[in-house]
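User: Run a structure prediction on this.
Assistant: Running it now.
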Amino acid sequence: MDSSFSSELNFMLALAPALLMSAAALEAWRSREPVERLWRRFNALTFAALALALAGLVAQLALAPADGAADAGMDGWLAANAFGAWVSLLVQLLGAAIGVYSSKHLRGEPRQPVYATALAAVLAAVHLLLLANHWVVLIAAWAAIGGAMHPLLCFYGDRPFALLAAHKKRVTDRAADLLLIAAAALAWSETGSGSFPVLWAHIAAGQASAALAWSGVCLALAVIARTALMPVHGWLVQVMEAPTPVSALLHAGVVNLGGYVLVLFAPLLGVSLAARWLLVAFGLVSAMVAGLVLLTRVSQKVHLAWSTIAQMGFMLLECGLGLYLFAALHLLGHSLYKAHNFLNASSTVGECGRTLVTGEARNSGLSMALAVPVALAVVFAVRAALGGGAWPWWWSAVLALAWAPILWVPAAPQGRAAVPVRLAAALAMTVLLTLAAGLVDHAPLGVANDPLAPAGLVALAGMAAMYLGMAAFQLRPRAVTAIRRWVYAGFYMDEGYTHWVLRLWPVRWAGAGRAAAPAAWGLRGSAWGRSGS
């Protein structure tokens, strides 16, 4: 097949989901039909976009150039790439599932056309970001995602904390926009172009400079803000006021985009050591603190929110360490896992009922002590079986600490009968996870690793400290009462950030419950100005 035709076909298939979701947003905006018919059309378009996203991934894997170059279009402003095709399929799969779930979950709610329009606009903007091949497109698409998310976060406009969380996110997003603009300006001044391929070629030619190093720092800080790492994390926990499918969209799709951007900009991070250390520092602290905080929370959705912060911290830590393949697989796996958990959150009611009847079993201290050496033995054995050298030795130790809690077993007498079966299943899971990690190097994602050994040792020390903290909370809950209060509050970082946000950009939110807020972007004659009932 002619290479130019293959390139054009790849690009058009990659662009199609964005066009279909834009059409879905316009259809919902202008629709005057009953909401049931609106949702049927919306879901039909999302599934059509899903089919095209799948076709785009197949075409990317089968027809992409052997050198891994992106298939550009629109005069180089947009381009399709292998990793973007994987994320596009994932995002559209989530969008289709969330659309079907929302059509039932929101039954009877007013302003459903507003919701459908905003949801489609978010998906269209995400697809556009995944095609970005120029600084201007990247900045505009990421800003558009935040703007389209705002009506979803404020869907219940009479809830004060929903408005506060949306305001904090808006302030954080504007700061991230300024940082992205600064990163673009520095890189543009160095290369004379805003095109990403020009930047990659400039770096590959060995023409790194202080301007590019500072561009990497600004990019890293922008991603840290967009992915809700500490201390700007509070809004991600407080948006639980929004409908459950909005939480699924946010946690499984939108905040993960920071990982995609960092993987895309791996060449720039390679010439900015300070940017990589920033990602390691913020990622490690967020993973450690959020991992401990979620142990103190009982609300299922809040627990999942803190889990997302911990996972985002770990993902950015992987990028800072130069383990981009692991970050890419982490992004895909976390998105599917978190979407399932949010859309299945109602099942927690039944689980809590069973816990009240059977009691909550504590884990055995002996199993916590033995879990780490057993996990280390499994990881290093699998690594040796795969030929060794698949990843640095310190990453093997980090993975062992991550897998170790799987090997914990209950200490309660009534739970001991199931220990052999549970332990066998845990060992099998640890082996499978390590094998999956070993196959990462062969995954067709179009990215490569660039390990940073000194930062890896720091990450290993941090993960060991986190494991000890988790074990202490499990074994001696009363002995750590004082620090437990601080952990429960996330060390009060969000309170300080909220204080400064409201000082710098005051907004009325506490009185929102007195009267419902008007429909967002209310335009006469459009879905935004009607109830949709």
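Residues 155-348+477-507 form one domain.
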